[in-house]
Recover the amino acids of this structure.
């Protein structure tokens, strides 16, 4: 394709929706907000959607950013996004969820994990609260090992490994996820305190270490079944997730 050139009107429309977040390692390009009506438990709820792209270079010429899109092969790797609800920037209290992409749980509704439930439930909690944001984090599949490796880890789990053992057997650490990009985007969207929806202390520590004001944590347990009991117990026993008493039944080996 030849060089892309938008007309002034089209360029002006996009410029108004692109925010550049500069960092020492380049820039994050944040696009949005975009009105996104979502089917949530049978009701239509309108969120404001953003997507972001990390770049090793800072291009402040918006036409230059657009011209690179068609040759960047962005469809070959994932970009993250965030769903914002209510007056997220100015409301005194807001809830957020840092949700790692889960192809099997979020898309197919797999019962081997609780990710699909956590995705929908956290969106419901944010709407009920009145203001908040759900960060949907790419490149976090399988706690950072990727979808193909996750498939191999599942095979090991079917032969008796737990989640942590399977990841480690494939040469990975238990959890390699990084929240730096999401935190930079969060800081661009809001400076007031947030309540984090999570059972994972590492997410809480990452927010606090960045200097973000965190007013609290809300747990997110549910959808426990015979298919994910061992997975949930491993989260608590080996990955340090914080349990609410009685939310997960006693360990039972499930094959």
């Amino acid at each position: 394709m030849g060089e892309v050139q938008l007309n002034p009107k089209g360029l002006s429309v996009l410029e108004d929706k692109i925010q550049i977040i500069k960092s020492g390692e380049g820039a994050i390009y944040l696009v949005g907000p975009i009105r996104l009506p979502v089917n949530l438990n049978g009701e239509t709820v309108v969120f404001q959607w953003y997507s972001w792209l990390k770049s090793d270079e800072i291009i402040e010429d918006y036409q230059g950013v657009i011209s690179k899109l068609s040759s960047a092969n962005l469809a070959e790797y994932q970009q993250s996004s965030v769903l914002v609800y209510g007056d997220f920037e100015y409301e005194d209290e807001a809830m957020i969820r840092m949700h790692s992409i889960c192809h099997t749980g979020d898309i197919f509704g797999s019962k081997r994990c609780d990710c699909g439930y956590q995705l929908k439930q956290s969106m419901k909690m944010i709407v009920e609260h009145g203001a908040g944001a759900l960060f949907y984090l790419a490149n976090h599949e399988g706690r950072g090992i990727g979808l193909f490796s996750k498939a191999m880890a599942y095979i090991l789990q079917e032969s008796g490994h737990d989640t942590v053992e399977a990841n480690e057997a494939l040469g990975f650490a238990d959890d390699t996820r990084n929240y730096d990009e999401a935190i930079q985007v969060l800081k661009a969207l809001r400076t007031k305190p947030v309540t984090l929806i999570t059972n994972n202390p590492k997410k809480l520590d990452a927010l606090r270490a960045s200097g973000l004001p965190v007013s609290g944590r809300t747990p997110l347990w549910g959808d426990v079944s015979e298919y994910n009991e061992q997975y949930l117990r491993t989260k608590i026993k080996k990955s340090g997730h914080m349990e609410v008493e009685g939310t997960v039944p006693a360990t039972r080996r499930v094959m």
User: Anything to note?
Assistant: Strands lie at 18-23, 26-40, 43-55, 80-85, 95-100, 132-137, 194-197, 214-218. The chain has one domain: 8-140+177-223. The CA atoms of residues 88 and 131 lie 5 Å apart.
